[in-house]
């Protein structure tokens, strides 16, 4: 599927790979686990909805100085409020 990225990472060795197809990632994970018995974890990211979702979660709005202002602890007072 376009716009999907799967990050595969093994907890027991240095195996790490990124696939743009879920099926490829699943095959690689199954193969590695079945041959080595390792515990492989994978994370599925959608580049379409995922990026915008992650951006919203992080409070990234695209303005300079507004890259990580989601937490009030980081920046309790906006230095220059836009009017
Ligand atoms: Zn491994």
**Count of helices?**
2
The mean pLDDT is: 76
**Strand arrangement, major sheet:** 2-1-3
Number of strands: 3
Low-confidence stretches: none
User: How does the helix and strand content classify structurally?
Assistant: alpha+beta
| Helical content (DSSP H or I, runs of 4+) | 25-40%
Question: Which key phrases capture this entry?
Answer:
2 helices, 3-stranded antiparallel sheet, alpha+beta, 30% helix, 83 residues, binds zinc ion, elongated, single chain, 3 strands
Describe the structure.
It is a single chain. The chain has 83 residues and is α+β, with helices and mostly antiparallel strands. The chain has helices at 22-36, 49-58, and strands at 4-10, 16-19, 40-46. The chain has a domain at 4-51. The protein is 30% helix and 22% strand. The protein has a 3-stranded antiparallel β-sheet with strand order 2-1-3. The chain is elongated and about 60 Å long. 5% of the residues are buried. Bound molecules: zinc ion (ZN). Residues 60-83 are annotated as: Disordered. InterPro entries: DUF7542.
Describe this structure in a few short sentences:
The protein is α+β, with helices and mostly antiparallel strands and 83 residues long.
């Amino acid at each position: 599927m376009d716009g999907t990225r799967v990050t595969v990472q093994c907890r027991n060795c240095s195996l790490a790979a990124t696939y743009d197809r879920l099926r490829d990632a699943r095959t690689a994970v199954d193969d590695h686990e079945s041959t080595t018995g390792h515990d492989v974890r994978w994370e599925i990211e959608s580049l379409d909805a995922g990026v915008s979702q992650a951006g919203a979660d992080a409070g990234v709005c695209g303005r300079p100085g507004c890259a990580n202002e989601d937490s009030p602890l980081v920046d309790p007072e906006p230095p220059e409020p836009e009017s």
